[in-house]
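Subgroup meeting minutes
Present: P.N., E.W., G.H.
Scribe: E.W.

1. P.N. recapped why we're keeping a running log of single-chain structure predictions: easier to compare across weeks, and new members can see raw inputs and outputs side by side.
2. G.H. added today's entry (218 aa).
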Amino acid sequence: MSVKITSPAEGDEIKGNTVELGVEHTGIEIAKAGEGDPDATGHFHVFIDKDPVAPGEAIEKAEGIVHSTDNPIVIAGLDPGEHRLVVVLGDTNHVRIGESESEVRVKLTGPSVQATAPAQITAGKDFTITLETTGLEVVKAPAGEQGKAGHFHVLIDLGFPEYAKAVGTGDQIIHTTEKTITIKGLAAGDHKILIVVGDGGHVPFRPLVADLLTIKVV
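Output recorded in log:
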């Protein structure tokens, strides 16, 4: 059983504040927690700027730890600067399996967006997301310098947008230049809220400038 980072390369400089981490694995089927044969399936866990837990220890859901079945693994919301990313495997119960691990150090050059919000809220109640940016001019579409000026797209329970395709409209999408955003009345359950910076044509920056929040509604 093994896991290996294939991209980016050690020491790479990456624009934006998102890393798309390519990985290879052997000896295990990748599946979401609670799915598949518990003795033969698992998923990826990325430790950001911290050491991974030892084999056999539980991997918590916490800041600086990404749980994912995606490949590449999209890691959003990083601050500009150098970061150490370590990938290990965990089973369906988020317990680290095997001793294999792979790490890479990269440097993010920005621009960036970081989002904050309550980790848990009451069902049906409004809550606020606050955004902070670095190296970004926030402007209405269309205006500003390509790659440095844009506005926010808030995607509620939607995946990362397609490459070179404009973000659309709908009940689950908010277009705004405001850095304080109110989200109304989510139902009980876990929700993912993605904040993506896009240009005057609503096309997300590439490399991505984005952050991802997980909100538990009880």
